[in-house]
Every structure is written in structure tokens, then in C-alpha cells.
Amino acid sequence: MSAQAGGGVPAPRPSLYAYALRLYRSKPDGRPPHGGYPLPDPPPLRARPGRREAQAGVRDALAPLLSRPDTVRAADEIHRRLHTLDIRDLHIQAAMADLPLEDTAAARALGRHLTRTGTSTLTVNVGIALLARLGEPEDVPYLKVLGLLRVLARPAVDALTALHCPTAALVWLADHTENRALHRLIDAIAARDDHEARTWLINAPLHSGAVGPSTARRIAKAVRLADILREEQSDTQAIAQAGRLLSRMTGLRDYRPEILSYQQATTTYNAFVAGASQLPPTPDHYAILLSVALDLHSGPSVLLDWRSGQREALLRALEAVLSTQSWEAVAQSEPEEPAERRRVHWIRRTARQPFHHAAVSRFRVEATVRDPADADTVEVRLLIDGRPLVPEAFGKGAANSPEYLLDSGRLRAAAEPREVQLAEAYCTEGCCGALYVTIRREGDQVVWSDWRRPPTRQPQAELPEYRFDAADYDTEIERAENDRSWAWPARNTARSIAAGLRDQPDLLTRWDGQVGWIGTDFHDQDTTVVSFTYWPGLAAGQRDKDGPWLQFIWSLPDDGTPPENQAAAALRQLAEQDPKTYAQVRGGSRSHAEALGFPWPEPSDPEESA
Asked: pTM of this prediction?
């Protein structure tokens, strides 16, 4: 019986601690599968109480039991009451945070009993919450092992951090963790000012899902990155890690670019580039050097306080390294491993972009793709007088995609003024706003004016009116619209499908479908994704705006044929077959799906949703 099946107390079984320990000892290297160890029998998914109701129920049920001297009876009663409530794990920690504990010794003993003998995540979570408040060094080994289970990783890390456990405990768990709690572990280690933490951080793999821009800055500060690079015997691992951290600090998955808050940025860039020639030529190292060059060329790093000619000198030095025969051979290789091959193809497409020397007008448009290993957004970088506009004028998110700004013709100038959204906040416009400008043509000039952006707590300088030579502006927009050198096959397939649906919208509307987003899968860039919304009655012009609707996703893996052929085949299929019969439901609601006769998708990780 499931540990959280509801409708009664689960049947006895081995404790989760014993289960996790057994799995750990059964692996030669002790490493769990990607995402961490699953539960022995995942709980089913059902509708459950809301957050406030659930937390109130936990407090009411547990408050009388937490200070009972009879630990075993209290644990059994907690076990029974929690499963009667039928709540989610995530409500336990919040409900337990401020519950009064009259007898701390009894509560500590109860926490230990629950963490070491508990057979369900609910009861073990109560134990972890108690030890986060009252635990002692002897509890650290048990919390470490429980952290190997994917659904207990986050509370276990929080408890270890609250206990100020030795750095070695955090490092051990980080070395044995591949799940969603890894970023919390890395943050916790970066907060430690000791040799063991710094050594681990300078050598740790920086998975993009675990190390975002702000974490990268904290790591750089914690390890004293600039100082390490200035050492005479700085090794290649430290140099490569420095490049990863610098590149990650300019990432798009955050608000203000963190590189602008890193006080030693220019010093670290100088030291990194000085050591770049020491790196062995590999696809990973090439991608690191190229990523740094892209940032120095047109990313937010341009906005740092550089001395005259300093940034340009760094770019020339990187170009000199990557122009040698051994590095050019890396770019021409064809690795067998798909992810590495994808990076090499990106290197080929991008290799010359940051070293562009041709004379350009004061207005430049560059479609920029970051290292595929980071799975970041593709953006249009808008440079005015060589400075990236969006991070300087907005700083709350990346510029919009080439499809949005270029394929649509939105940046073209006409006599009739047109307002254009250049960028949207990382969290969406509805939360933190967007950057808008009005574009118009006045005689032989193109004018950008009438800016709109969200207010901030800190005073903002007024954005100026920009005027560009109309001929130069038109030439640059035409060049950017026709430049597909940045795009990979699946992205070109998506572009052609989008163009086909703009020309023939009835391909979808005939099936009561309204086209949504078309691009490449965020987790698999070699898969084209077509999203559409099913609105019953749309084709007949009788859509009920208050009626049920569903979002569908159609995924088309790259089959190796020319993108235009793949797009043509997809458009033919839309013309001949209802896409609702082969696309997957991904949005709307369970009740809408039931009303319209479609199965509602279950989460890929049911334990995280329990």
C-alpha cells in the first residue's frame, strides 16, 4: 500500500531511511539516478486540501503531540493523523516552522524517531522539521542519507543548513545528488568561508539547472575567483571554472544580469583571458571561451567599467587562441555523443560572431544563441553605439526572440508609428513589466521614442530619443531578417511552419485550433514544438469565451531531412488530419479535459506533486 494512499494508515514496511541507505550502498559509486532515488511506491495523485486548510490541519493535529514524553506512541498517532488528513508533503515544513515546543527534549527525541523509523514522507518530514529546529551533530548522518530521496532532498538540505553542519556533510550530499535540491546545496556550500567549500566549488560541475546567474556570482565571490586566477600555478580546472562562472553570471534566467553586480568582474575577465591559452582544446573549453567572447562582444559585460580599449583587447586575445590550428580542429570535429555534437555545431555557427570587425552603423541587431549546454533563451541583442540596449535600459529580462522581433517585421520603420515590445521581464510582463518603444520614420531618419517600462524603487534616468539614418537602419534590419546563420535545423523547421500558418491560418482554425507558440523544445533543441489552443466552435465563429478550452503541444523531432521539407510535411499533416488526434494536451484544466473528452496529462514526477 502506498505511503500516502489515504483512507487509512499505510501497512508497515521498512523505514525510508533504511530504504535510502540500502540503495546508496547498492551502487558502486553511491550516486543516485538523475533526479535522485524515487520512493519505493509513489503516491497516487488526487485532489487535496488547499495550502491554508492543509497547514491549519497539520498544526491542529500535531501541536498536542510534539512534546509527549512517550515517543513511540506520539509517532504512531502522528502517523495516523497525517494520513487521515490526506495532505501534501510541502505543507509540513511551513506548518511546523513556528509550532510551540514546550518540551524540547521530547520533541527532539520524536524528530529522531520519525526520521529514523518513519515509513512515509509525511511522517519523515515532520521529523526533519523538528530536527531543523532542535537537531544536534548526531542527526547529520541521517539527514544526509534521507537527502538522497528526491522528495526529501529539499527539506533535508534546509535542515542541514539550519544545523550549521560541517561543510563535509554538504559536500558529501552534493557529490551524491542529482536532483532539484542541488542548487540549494551549492548555495549553502558557497555561504561557507572555508577551504573545503572553496575547493569543492572550484571543481564542482556547474549544471545549468543548479547554478543560475546569482548562484554563479556567489560562487565566484566565495572562492575568491580573481585571486585564484592570479596565482602563478593556476590550474586548467580553475581557469575553465572561471569561464563557466563568468558566462553563467551573464545568463538570461534572472532579472538584472549578475555580472554587473560582481565587483571584480573586469579583473576576473582579464585574468581568465590571460590563462585561456593554457586550456587544452576540447569542445567544452571551446564553448567556454566562445561564450565569454559573446558576452564581451554584445552581452551585458559590455556595460562594465572598462578602460579604453581594454574589452577589445580581450576579444582579440580570445580570437588569437581560437584561431590556432588545434582549436579550429575542435570546431570541425563530429563527436558521437549527441549533446557534445550539438555544442560543436553551435560553435561552427557562432565562431565568428563575437569577432566581427567590419564597419557597422551605430545601430546593430544580432540574433544570439548561447551555449546549448545552458539551455538559455535565444534573444535579439540590440546595440546602439556598441552598447546593449536591453540590459542597460531595462535589466529585468532578455530581449525578445528573433521570431518575435525579426520574422514578424516588428522592427521595420514606417511613417505610421508603431509600438513594439523589445523585452519582457524574466517573470512575465504581468509581474514585472516589459520594455516598449515606438518606432516611426521621419524623412531620412528612423526615430525610437516614447519609451515605456515599469517603474522601479530606484530613480531611473529617462531614456533618450534615438535617431538613426533611415538608409542605414533599413539595411541593418533587412540584413538581420535574412540572416539565419544563427539557427539550427529544428529552429528553421519551426520558422517555416510558423510562416506557413501565417499564410494559411485555416490549417488550424478548421480544427477549432488557434496557433500559439512555435519554436524548439526547451529541453531538447532538436525537437520542433507547435502549440495551439483548442476552442470548440472557433471554426464556425461561435467560440464560447467562457467555455472549456485546452492547450495542445505537437512535438516533431528532427529527422535529418532539410528543414523546409520537414515543415512542408507538417503543414500537409495539419491540412489532412485533426492535430488533436496526435498532439498532447498540456494546458487548460482537468475539468476542461473531461468535458471535452480528452485525457488530462499526469505529471512526469508524481512524487513532486504529491
From this structure: 0.85
